[in-house]
Amino acid sequence: MTIGLFRSIFLPLIAVITLSACTSNSPADQRRARDNMTERLSQIPTVDISSRLYSQAIEMKRNGNCDGANPLFYRLANRGGGFELAQYHLADCLLRIATPSITNTDWLEGLIWLRRSAEAGAPEAQGLLAHLYATGPGDIANKTEAAMWFSLYEKNPARKKPGFSYALTPAQQAAIIKALDAETLAKGEALANQWQSTIWQPPSAGRLAPEAPRSEGGIDMLQPQ
């Protein structure tokens, strides 16, 4: 029997029985009994389904099982705002599994999810997107985009919050900096100063279709430099 079923059916019944037993007591005693029961009900743990799914998916991903984790990440990522970290992990898994090319629908889908997470302000996604644009294949490499996302990643205050654990590695940061000259970095910083976050909201539930839009947040993300 689930905790939710126990809480929704049996605990109210117990409360009624308890209060009924107190009918011979004074109103003050009945009020204390009612308050005590309310406090007990509030202390019963509830199961956060989203947190449970996320924990299961993360554990699978850590064990190298992105194929098993992706269906769970999809369920969370498709909820839109508030699930940017699930979108990031889904993108990371798809980009790891698929061959890097915009002609590969799985890899393209990973890029789209990464953009959604980055556009919402997730520093994990912004850093990975900067690295992808700086070092990716010829049909996706975009130095200006790389510079913009790297600037946003560097300045993102969320990186300093507890729980941030998916930072760019020193090698990734070095690769980004090596790929960008001073002029491109300046252009990217100017774009970053004008950037505004955009929260993606799903038009409908379900897995992203292969014919998903090729741009997010008004920026053509597939146009090579």
TrEMBL record:
The keyword tRNA-binding does not apply. Keywords: Signal. It comes from the Bacteria. PROSITE patterns: PROKAR_LIPOPROTEIN (PS51257). InterPro entries: TPR-like_helical_dom_sf. Residues 1-28 form the signal peptide. The keyword Transferase does not apply. Residues 202-225 are annotated as: Disordered. This is Sel1 repeat family protein. It comes from Iodidimonas nitroreducens. The lineage of its organism: Bacteria, Pseudomonadati, Pseudomonadota, Alphaproteobacteria, Iodidimonadales.
